[in-house]
Amino acid sequence: MTQPAKQQPADSQLExxxxxxxxxxxxxxxxxxxxxxxxxxxxxxxAMLAPNSSNLQPWSFYVVKSPELKExxxxxxxxxxxxxxxxxxxxxxxxxGTWREHSRxxxxxxxxxxVPKIVRxxxxxxxxxxxxxxxxxxxxxxxxxxxxVAGLRRPVPRWPYxxxxxxxxxxxxxxxxxxxLMLALRAHGYDSxxxxxxxxxxxxxxxxxxxxxxxxxxxxxxxxxxxxxxGPQYRLDKSKVVTWR
Amino acid sequence: MTQPAKQQPADSQLExxxxxxxxxxxxxxxxxxxxxxxxxxxxxxxAMLAPNSSNLQPWSFYVVKSPELKExxxxxxxxxxxxxxxxxxxxxxxxxGTWREHSRxxxxxxxxxxVPKIVRxxxxxxxxxxxxxxxxxxxxxxxxxxxxVAGLRRPVPRWPYxxxxxxxxxxxxxxxxxxxLMLALRAHGYDSxxxxxxxxxxxxxxxxxxxxxxxxxxxxxxxxxxxxxxGPQYRLDKSKVVTWR
Lengths: 245, 245
What we know:
The structure is a homodimer.
Chain A: H1 11-23, H2 37-47, E1 59-64, H3 67-76, H4 81-85, E2 88-95, H5 99-108, H6 117-131, H7 138-150, H8 163-187, E3 191-195, H9 200-207, E4 213-222, E5 242-244
Helix pairs in contact in A: 2-8, 3-9, 5-6
């Protein structure tokens, strides 16, 4: 494989990135301008390049722009302005049940002629041991117990060995992609508002979300309107959240 | 407050962003070059600008560069090369217990002379109802039950009403910041490897992680070395994870 050539990006690249991150704000009111589908597709491509756990890509994206579905979906988002005014809503879904199929996909579509032995063994043997929590999560309980014994002598992975931990596992990788998606929209000149305030029962039903899926956020996206930002940006003093050791 | 002026970033900004996202790979081997502290600080500043749930910023970052701590930490990362060779390790921690203190911080440090009434009411009344799950998660159970009744007639929030859901809640916002951090390092010409393969018991003890904290990943960071990328990049066919509605 090739190593990307550029190790030292130009200052202008850093400035561009800073500008994107700093100008991204949660936008609560959009103009009625549509986002071209090609832009949304490009942003999704960039979202999918996020790093993720064992490359199992446990994410799904539901892009909603048809008024028949967008309207009830905005209603399920408690009618908030961001949802009501956005030309596109994207439900971002973390999946705990796709790792097996995605393991197969990685092996079946490996980009080089031969799948390295270590990779084949990982996806066909180790991943199933690691991610399968078994009926009622019982394999997970067993794995935790074995970890506690083995862990007395040497470092061992202790996680994600329960159905609840699998939800954190999937949400985490999916959120990495979500951040790429929001920044990509900004880089394209559009904006977004990540919403957690929604009725998940109604949303799951409207979008027919699979049983193993959790909508971790619904992204309202579009062109920033006047007064689209509701308040000043505030961040905690860094000393509260950063520790140097 | 001011609205950022730039609505339509230049094409060069988009290209810069694309380049950063595309050149970011999980790097498993770093040179022994240090990252200047100022660069790490800048990357953390950009990480902290990630959107997050109710602006409660439930994240912490432990930046480890002292050899006395970095070595046992790399050992707790199962000795993987990324951890062993990185000049800096950053433990990224999701906190389920800081929302109350951070609510206070938002109100105490509001960037404008007056805290709007709706903001004061949100952080002093609504957030405590929403995020406090009570002893043994019993408030959460009650909130879920009330939601089921009220939800028969109108959309209601149903989440995060359990201690387990709070873990997903915190991990999600923290992962958004983690992605900013990785991209920021890339924008600065450095690289990273987000690691989930570590012994959380040993890591928690080494870093003295608070009880409400979960290390959602440990980021190895540094200058990309030759053969730092282990395999070709593979992403699922988009049709498997994107649905247009």
